[in-house]
Amino acid sequence: MGREVYPLEQEARGKKFGEMIPRLEETRQKVREAGLWAPQVPTEYGGLGLGFMEHALVCEQLAKTPYGMYVFNAQAPDAGNMEILNEFGTEAQKERWLRPLCAGEIRSCFAMTEPEHAGSNPVWMSTTAVKDGGNYVINGHKWFTSAADGAAFAVAMVVTDPDAPPHGRASQIIVPTDTPGYRRVRNISCMGDEGEDWDSHSEITFEDCRVPQENLLGGEGKGFAIAQARLGPGRIHHCMRWIGISERSFDLMCQRAATRETAPGELLGSKQTIQNWIAESRAEIDAARLLVHHAGWRIDQVGAKEARVDVSLIKFFVAGVMSRVVDRALQTHGALGISDDTVLSFFYRDGRAARIYDGPDEVHKSVVARRILKGYGVEA
Amino acid sequence: MGREVYPLEQEARGKKFGEMIPRLEETRQKVREAGLWAPQVPTEYGGLGLGFMEHALVCEQLAKTPYGMYVFNAQAPDAGNMEILNEFGTEAQKERWLRPLCAGEIRSCFAMTEPEHAGSNPVWMSTTAVKDGGNYVINGHKWFTSAADGAAFAVAMVVTDPDAPPHGRASQIIVPTDTPGYRRVRNISCMGDEGEDWDSHSEITFEDCRVPQENLLGGEGKGFAIAQARLGPGRIHHCMRWIGISERSFDLMCQRAATRETAPGELLGSKQTIQNWIAESRAEIDAARLLVHHAGWRIDQVGAKEARVDVSLIKFFVAGVMSRVVDRALQTHGALGISDDTVLSFFYRDGRAARIYDGPDEVHKSVVARRILKGYGVEA
Amino acid sequence: MGREVYPLEQEARGKKFGEMIPRLEETRQKVREAGLWAPQVPTEYGGLGLGFMEHALVCEQLAKTPYGMYVFNAQAPDAGNMEILNEFGTEAQKERWLRPLCAGEIRSCFAMTEPEHAGSNPVWMSTTAVKDGGNYVINGHKWFTSAADGAAFAVAMVVTDPDAPPHGRASQIIVPTDTPGYRRVRNISCMGDEGEDWDSHSEITFEDCRVPQENLLGGEGKGFAIAQARLGPGRIHHCMRWIGISERSFDLMCQRAATRETAPGELLGSKQTIQNWIAESRAEIDAARLLVHHAGWRIDQVGAKEARVDVSLIKFFVAGVMSRVVDRALQTHGALGISDDTVLSFFYRDGRAARIYDGPDEVHKSVVARRILKGYGVEA
Amino acid sequence: MGREVYPLEQEARGKKFGEMIPRLEETRQKVREAGLWAPQVPTEYGGLGLGFMEHALVCEQLAKTPYGMYVFNAQAPDAGNMEILNEFGTEAQKERWLRPLCAGEIRSCFAMTEPEHAGSNPVWMSTTAVKDGGNYVINGHKWFTSAADGAAFAVAMVVTDPDAPPHGRASQIIVPTDTPGYRRVRNISCMGDEGEDWDSHSEITFEDCRVPQENLLGGEGKGFAIAQARLGPGRIHHCMRWIGISERSFDLMCQRAATRETAPGELLGSKQTIQNWIAESRAEIDAARLLVHHAGWRIDQVGAKEARVDVSLIKFFVAGVMSRVVDRALQTHGALGISDDTVLSFFYRDGRAARIYDGPDEVHKSVVARRILKGYGVEA
Q1: Is C270 at the interface with chain D, CB within 8 A?
Q2: What pTM was computed for the model?
Q3: Which entry of A42, B53, B244, C213 is 20 to 30 Å from C148 by CA?
Q4: Mean of the pLDDT values across residues B256-268?
Q5: CATH code matching the domain that covers D8-75, chosen among 3.40.250.10, 1.10.10.10, 1.10.287.3240, 1.10.540.10
Q6: Looking at domain D108-219, which of 2.40.110.10, 2.60.40.1230, 1.10.8.420, 2.40.50.200 is its CATH number?
Q7: Is the pLDDT of residue B106 over 90?
Q8: Scanning every residue of chain C, which has its alpha carbon at the shortest distance from the alpha carbon of D283?
């Protein structure tokens, strides 16, 4: 990581993602050659076949630098798509979509959130798929579809049965991005940057977009259940990534404290405020990591559904820890922290979304509390 | 605990400790009969002989109610004195002091902090012991000597060699409280209560107080080292107690949220603010417990000295968690939380000291940070 | 204040309020002689006749020590009762109740909160008064009736018309405490202390308690309106008291920082953490005072009703500032802060209620937000 | 503002500053025509001649949108340079530099911070100016020189007398940017954006850069004093800008709360967490504004030097308020808040520097505390 991947940070400064692709391909090739490619992918698809918790530990290391997950082909949203294709896909779907995805030959996206409806309410959506002949005809509007720019296909959450109970209304359908009626409207500029290719979040429309019924993933009405299967364990990996980011930031903070002088001979690290930040960050990161490991262990023991509270707990707890640690590290660097001469400014901008995506903190807190209060005999 | 110990809370309301002693003796007797007496004490002295981490787990349960530790004879400062007598005492000292302590026949105290010097600086003290004949002659001034009222003996930290390097100046000497020259000046009123007997913090003076040299504990100049041996692992137990207090408070908060209405048919627990508190508290307590277990495991693995950073981390982290959880639970109860109709008001008052004793948060944070920065090659 | 009132703090340590009364009477006499008696009371009733904001400024000074408000006869709940008697009372009521109250010859209480209903919901109560002959017959249950112990009369909030719209159901009735059927059940132990006399919070029952109809205060169904008239401006005075407490705590913190050494020659005040606390406290107290002054000015300009948002804002903002400042000051004192050797431990315990009484923070926040959102065209 | 300036936000999205200049010139022209040009500039130089506090009130309004200050020609660092040129400049300097600056014909920059030295220590710098013939010869290295790209001249802080007492070492010298030896090395990419023209922060080197001695501003050794004269009152304007940003964010938060639904018919604004944010933000912004007005009034009354504590207090207090308000507003918008479809994402990125520039929070806190402790008789 230190030799091959961290240096990409400064190389990439001021460059669009597209310009970086050849350089990233080079590094990906080194990863392949080192036998470390796609750690989370089953061996039959060319990965290392690491178990769920093993891969979580890997995520912490890869996430310490913005391109880490990508060069190991473990990046969102592809990794999640690989998981659900592997678990719910037909053999034909796997051959067509999973195999090249695992090989890093194509990319994909996952189209769920809609601008008109709160993303915090996962059963409220308007995009529909209606059967017609052997096809589904899809109409609707999505946004914050990450990495749609350059993706070969989207997995789209669509309502197939509006009259079913809320959690049975939606299905997931694979939509090749060259299908007529599928349109990437724009890359949504986020935090000052429109992004490009994998590094982007798009607005998408479906207008009478027809895909064959065999593109249905895992059964009609299973959309929500598959999303849960995808998101629950995926949150462990998100959280481990955030811990990686926290550790990297912590390390930069300590390096700065140990080298910067505030006056001749007076180390920044001798300031008690900086010492407080170091100590508090150390405690918070360690506690966060243990909590994530524990939640992962719970998923292993009792399954993602039963471990829902554990997963919601880490979602907001770790996002909060990362926010504070990155903020302290940035402040420790002064103006340098604002600049892109270190990676901290990127972590600050990019990490802000952690408290929002996959369910904002506030939603997870309510989920946790209501579940706990159920144990006290009430529906709150 | 629920049947025999929690009910003591309301029985004790408005009573001085002395009045409660017969009732507490009764419960202690039941503990003995149940074969649960003195869980942390070696079996040869009548205890259960639990290992270090086993006892830590027990502490969480016992600490959920103010008299829990006491009725199991696992209360501070006696438990710490038992440990050091067992580890550093001579056979004669053990027979005379340790055995009756373990049996619950006598109580003891530990006199270290001095009013004139910051307790946060453990090597700065003025109380001296000078050899004279076969005796030590002790002169000095201590305070916040917990449970001195009614104690049979004090273990006193005294300077025996003022010219030694800072960590080698002090020794620990056993001083029977009926020794001439030993005087308990007062019980210091704390949080509105002077306290009594075990439930007190005293100011003490030594004026030409003579004790035989065989009362020296563990060698001259070993005072600081023994204190460290006592405090390091002791902090694990403090932290587990605080987690017990947090859990009890959490439970009371949830009970209240699940039963109190803010308007007819509207549960307090349906308020999002209360839900936030429940969720945040759950995450913080779980994280704190894992961090304490981890620190305990570290002590087991590498020893108290090497695990110093781990221990300092939990000291301030868990004290902070407890403060917040107790505060939220109290607030959830409204005026009832202020009253002594629940135990929360006690936890609020009593728990405030956790951020101060055994080293204030601020000192532990600096310890942690300086140790970490040493790893970056600097003395900060 | 410094010469006559602050010294009462240490004199009172460990004493019940009753024991202190002669000493307090002495000081009250000095206040009368100095021509400073009852600053907020109209001159015709023997006070200084200060205007609303003038008295607010006085409150800050008096509240810097626990007995300050009392020795000037400006203490809650009497001051509030004086206000409503003066504004809404008949001449007969004023002669009988207001005059001796202003003279400091009797004390009073205000019975509103009920244990069965959330105090945060002021229109939800069960105590009723039914007309019978020339009397009201009162039945019900109150608690946290402050200073009921020793009071000559209570002003009781009771439902006189259960079928009226919520804000018109209740009335306020003056109940002499020697009326048959009025019973002070107990002083509720709060923060470890049952209290006594003025320094107490009682549980009260009314059982067929008959008082003449001329004891009605300000008209039937006006109970809620009078309570609002009492509480709104009263909150300004509460807030100014809290600022007084904050200032006193701040001063003690600075004194400690300027005199305590953490090692020979090393001032506590040279620690950056302490400096942070001093600076943050200074900013917060100054900001809080300005905000309270502003809210008072708003009440003067537009009336208490229109200034409701302003008053709710300061209620939670200033309570929060006081909590933090007292906490920092206490921590700065270490173990001494826990003790009753300074007044900080009292402020810590007593001040905790500020976030609860007169409407918990959480309720005021919702009031503010809903009012603001009304300006955006919605009922939230 | 609403009609002409706010709309520039969305027009500018994705554009470099240079592309926007014609459009901004258009708006500047409208400002001139409306008779609102350069509110803070003396009338003799074409401005409105507003007083110090009058302009502070204006700043709040202009800062509600990123281009507000610029289109009124009140933007940093030009406004500060106009002030010091007006106060300390010679007539010749004023004619040559101040007049076109006030007219908006040229721009300028202020080169103070050096990469090798902590910006928090304003008397520690290495750039020197040595007299030679009628010139100063400047050598050194600066960075975070805002708006240097496109500036006609820099005001450079340089050491003219290294042997003087610390506050007398530096002078300010006007350096036209076309002077040989002056080199803009790069625009420092900050928060992901290299910026351009006015919207940039540059790294600068001086290599034997010769400027005539008549370019000295306000006397040799006066550099620090002039910087103080510039920064002290300038901080009032910074703080008022931050309040403007807070108000705009608050308004967006309320608009979102009042219109977004989390489920059909359920307003986001009915969530108690959102209500808490609205209420807390309202209180904090109001308190912050009053504190800034108070500090401004103090400067008017006692001068910038005596009001130093007041100015330091607002510097960190208001920066903190803005950070929290912007963060809450962003979170209220969910994914939309991350995007550049609202201005919040810009405020989040750009506002982060407020806790750093013109002295980081931590430095101002120490300044405040040491000054206060001086009142307690100690140098801490």
Answers
A1: yes
A2: 0.97
A3: C213
A4: 95
A5: 1.10.540.10
A6: 2.40.110.10
A7: yes
A8: C313
